[in-house]
Amino acid sequence: MAALRALRPFAHREFRVLIAALSISIFGSGMWAVAMVYEVIHLGGGPLELSLVATAASVGLVGFVLAGGIAADRLPQRLLIIAVEGANLAVIATITALAMTDVLQLWHLALGAFVLGVGQAFFFPAYSAILPRILPADDLLAANGLEGTVRPVLQQAAGPALAGILVATLSPAHAVAGVAVCHLLAFGIVNFLGREALGVGSVGADGAIGVDGTVGADGPAGTPSKSSLFKDLAEGFSYTVRTPWLLWTLVWACLSVLFLIGPIESCFPSWSRTSWAATPGCSVSCSPSWESVAPSPPWQPPPCASPAAT
User: What is the pTM of this model?
Assistant: First the structure.
């Protein structure tokens, strides 16, 4: 019975469309996490260059997350999600073309990572805001549980695994191309979200969303019109500072990324390449662990400096 309750959100067409697009998108994000690392290495970069690209993504996410929440409150969430997936597709497709033609530079990756971070800042508030409009209240907990299950499986396991295989057997550029395919599929699927089911209407002068999902001059059920964008930003920032649990959760998350997750993601690839190169029996210098299934890939990372040389 509990299993059936967990699957009840799939009875609603709009949720099936949304979760399918979300799953493919976060699968692509998991592939990007690996593809971006090896593109940086392919360009001759090290931990510093990798950290710059990762920082660009974090700045885009953190810098626009409040704006993303306000946009999800003021604008049709369906259009926001479609716009974000379209932007993701354009960015990754451009990086793929540059990588395939061997003209990709580090600043291209940094700029692309920044835009992808901004996209995340707008996507997930819109996704969270759209769920109550397509699901009954009794199914929201199950929908959140499904999203929480899908994310680590696809973004932290399956996506990186496929990207690693593509890097080992083909090249980092082909892994980025795989990310582009994911965002193309997600963009196509999310366009099937029904306008009628979501009650999408026109946007009025002040951006307030009406009870039928339209956006007009007054707020829902005749409530007063919304305040200005900058006032909402200031109120959001002030609320975060005034709310201890939220503030310290944010501080802890930033510190863990700065001192734990960031160093691991930036330094581990270079460290592992150097360690594998110095390990007896490692026949292919500096290659990822996927060499066990593909002994002679066309693409090889740049040679690592031996420990004696350092």
Answer: 0.74
